[in-house]
Design goal:
This protein is α+β, with helices and mostly antiparallel strands and about 260 residues long. It has 7 helices and 11 strands.
């Protein structure tokens, strides 16, 4: 894979981590000397609420762990270290030697062409999120949807923080509605030259309707319409077969290594 494109796609992931941190009022977001660290509004240690990502590969892996511990231990929190296969092999080796568990292993995927526009089931429609009511609907869809991946509903609500932030100009968010009720969603976060699909979700009662795929097609095409050269995403186990069928292909892996809180040691 072209190294320049790989770097752009990786920067989109880092941009998304920053953005989700900023959604949470009161979160502490620190980025300095090659490390991005976020202490969110809850103590939940898995995922974006309390997390670390290395932004400069020259930062030694032991230093990443030491600085992360110094940031989170006074707060009494566990945290997730995001490890990208192409960039963090040395960091992953240190984490494994230290006995830190990887709880999530997800493919990083990309596509470099628009998709066929979505075909909607009878009684369904797609809407763009343009107001706070739509943003709240997005939050509530994913508060239910992501429970199947082990993320509590209240934690998802905390991550979304102030829903109106979803209305920023560098996002495009789609709502899939069945019988006029929002049941599915997907969003795009733009970064220079590329974009990323995030927060694809469907309520349990609306799964297997094709609406998640339709939302993904919609926002993917919106990214290309706005000039993205490629679109990336990190796929859940449920989503991976759908994205593969659409034409997304795997170019890397993202793993979540979770360091427990000092109290749980």
């Amino acid at each position: 894979m072209d190294a320049a494109l790989a770097a752009l796609l990786d920067e989109n992931l880092l941009a998304a981590i920053r953005e989700i941190g900023r959604w949470q009022p009161g979160a502490v977001c620190v980025e300095a000397d090659g490390l991005l660290m976020i202490a969110g509004t809850t103590t939940f240690p898995v995922g974006f609420a309390n997390c670390v990502a290395r932004t400069d590969r020259s930062v030694a892996a032991p230093d990443v762990l030491a600085r992360a511990a110094a940031f989170f231990e006074p707060r009494g929190r566990g945290f997730t270290i995001f490890v990208r296969g192409a960039f963090d092999a040395d960091l992953e080796a240190v984490l494994q030697r230290s006995g830190v568990a990887s709880l999530v292993d997800t493919p990083c995927m990309l596509i470099d062409r628009p998709l066929t526009p979505p075909t909607l089931p009878r009684g369904c429609e797609l809407r763009a999120v343009t107001d706070e009511a739509g943003a709240v609907a997005v939050r509530e869809i994913n508060a239910e949807a992501y429970q199947s991946l082990g993320l509590p509903a209240d934690e998802i609500r905390a991550l979304y923080g102030l829903p109106r932030k979803l209305l920023a100009a560098h996002y495009v968010t789609a709502l899939g509605c069945r019988d006029a009720q929002p049941v599915s969603t997907a969003m795009i976060i733009f970064s220079p030259l590329v974009a990323g699909v995030y927060w694809v979700g469907t309520t349990s009662g609306a799964r297997r309707t094709g609406l998640a795929e339709a939302c993904t097609r919609q926002v993917t095409n919106a990214a290309f319409e706005r000039g993205a050269h490629a679109v990336t995403l990190q796929a859940s186990p449920m989503g991976e077969p759908i994205y593969t069928r659409l034409g997304y292909r795997t170019f890397d892996r993202l793993r979540w290594y979770v360091v427990p809180s000092p109290k749980s040691d």
